[in-house]
Amino acid sequence: MAVITISRETAAGGRELGRLLAKRLNYRYIDKSLFQDIANDLNVSEKTLVSFEERRRYEGYDQSSVCEEEYKKSLGSILLGAAGEDNVVIIGRAAYFFLKGEKNCYHIRLVATMDWKKEYAMKNYNVSPDRVQEFIEKGDDTRKWFRRSICGMGFDDAHWFHLTLNMSRIPIEQAAELIMSASNLSG
Question: Average pLDDT in the 163-169 region?
Fold first, then answer.
């Protein structure tokens, strides 16, 4: 059938939309579960991997290290393996980059206004109003760094994606319908 990748800004509803698509299409849903696979492949703890991704440097919890090239190789291999299974929705991890040449892959990017993301974060992540903007900015900065380090220059070029959706302009249900329609998939 197909593989759908979703790249998103912080608090743009990517996981919610991904779960909805996976349910409607009867696809496998993959997001943070990749962490365990990558950690196992690199023989490090998930905490070490989180530290590597979020802090832009290795701060090992288990006295092991993460090499950026080994990380990219592992991530790419795991994503290609997941895509090979077909019928999957993959959230984040620069999947659009690793699967750019694969047939029957549809790459979706989600954006939203800051006001919409603030409301979404407070409602869905229980972030307090006084911390919500900082939460979103930090998350977006981390995502940008991650994609830039994995994909290089042009990491956020709109040409990577089949479809970009502004989630502050359409409901999540409608976004799912648009993606299924654009991908020639039906639930």
Answer: 98
